[in-house]
Amino acid sequence: MQLSAPKVVTFWIAVLLGVLGFIGTFATIPLVSPYAFWFVFVGFALLAVATLTKGL
């Protein structure tokens, strides 16, 4: 299995999702707070898929 670094845009989208989910856990953000776990999960999943897929 060949791993590759994700593109910068993909990395920052994953970080943004993770941070939104983290903040949504401690602060009340109407759209984010009910789904905070899923924001973090999708951020990590996106980062994992981008690492395993070349060019993402």
Overview of this protein structure:
- There is one protein chain.
- This protein has helices at about 10-25, 35-50.
- The protein is an all-alpha fold and about 55 residues long.
- The chain has one domain (about 10-50).
- Helix 1 (about 10-25) runs antiparallel to helix 2 (about 35-50).
- The radius of gyration is 13 Å and the shape is elongated.
- The chain starts with 7 loop residues before the first helix and ends with a helix.
The helix/strand series, from N terminus to C terminus, equals: HH
Strand content: under 5%
Could you state the oligomeric state of the chains shown?
single chain
Number of E-state strands: 0
Tell me the domain tally. 1
Q: Would you tell me the overall average pLDDT?
A: 93
Shape: elongated
Number of helices: 2
Indicate the low-confidence ranges by residue numbers.
Answer: none
Rg (CA only): 13 Å
Structural class: mainly alpha
Q: Which percent range fits the helix content?
A: 55-70%
How is the biggest beta sheet arranged?
Answer: none
Q: What is the first-to-last residue Cα distance?
A: 16 Å
